[in-house]
């Protein structure tokens, strides 16, 4: 936690380009993500719009780095001919399927950043068999919503 505080204090003193790169970096980190990145940017006095854009870019890229390779992996796992039943992968896939069935891609994408991580929600959606394009669409919408809320909240609280 102290490391994050030091990072934010240093971010306040950097030039605008490095501030935006730092905001994007916060957006990349699971569990902090776009909301916190845009919040920190607005909180330290960076424009809410540019904070949201930088944080969105960092969070979106990191979530796509989950979606693209894991979609390929899960497609391969579903298509392979295996006579085995049970096991670690199948057990995790069953649990993911239950969560997916309860909330669907939109629910997971929008709720996950508040309780866990959008990265985990994307992983669960793909493991449950969701279409990659649908997962990308809903996670893009979710990240956009969360960075707007974070930027507005950070600007409202503000650091003076």
Secondary structure blueprint with pairings:
Blueprint: H1 2-12, H2 16-28, H3 33-43, H4 48-79, H5 87-115, H6 118-127, H7 132-157
Pick out its properties:
82% helix, 7 helices, 160 residues, mainly alpha
How is this structure best described in words?
There is one protein chain. With 160 residues, the chain is mostly helical. It has one domain. 82% of the residues lie in helices and 0% in strands. It is built from seven helices and no strands. α2 packs parallel to α4 (48-79), α3 runs antiparallel to α4 and α4 (48-79) runs antiparallel to α7 (132-157). The radius of gyration is 18 Å and the shape is elongated. The model has no long low-confidence stretch (mean pLDDT 89).
Estimate percent helicity: over 70%
Report the strand count: 0
* Helix/strand order, N-terminal first: HHHHHHH
Strand content: under 5%
Organism: Geomicrobium sediminis
Pfam families: Sm_multidrug_ex
Protein name: Na+/phosphate symporter
InterPro entries: Sm_multidrug_ex (IPR009577)
Question: Could you write a compact summary of the structure shown?
Answer:
It is built from seven helices and no strands.
């Amino acid at each position: 936690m102290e490391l994050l505080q030091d990072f934010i204090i240093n971010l306040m003193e950097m030039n605008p380009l490095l501030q935006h790169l730092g905001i994007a970096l916060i957006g990349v980190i699971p569990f902090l993500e776009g909301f916190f990145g845009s919040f920190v940017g607005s909180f330290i006095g960076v424009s809410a719009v540019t904070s949201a854009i930088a944080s969105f870019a960092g969070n979106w890229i990191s979530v796509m780095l989950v979606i693209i390779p894991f979609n390929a992996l899960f497609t391969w796992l579903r298509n392979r001919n295996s006579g085995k039943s049970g096991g670690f992968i199948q057990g995790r896939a069953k649990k993911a399927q239950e969560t997916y069935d309860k909330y669907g891609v939109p629910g997971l994408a929008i709720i996950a950043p508040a309780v866990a991580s959008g990265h985990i929600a994307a992983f669960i959606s793909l493991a449950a068999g969701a279409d990659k394009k649908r997962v990308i669409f809903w996670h893009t919408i979710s990240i956009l919503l969360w960075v707007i809320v974070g930027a507005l909240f950070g600007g409202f609280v503000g650091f003076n």
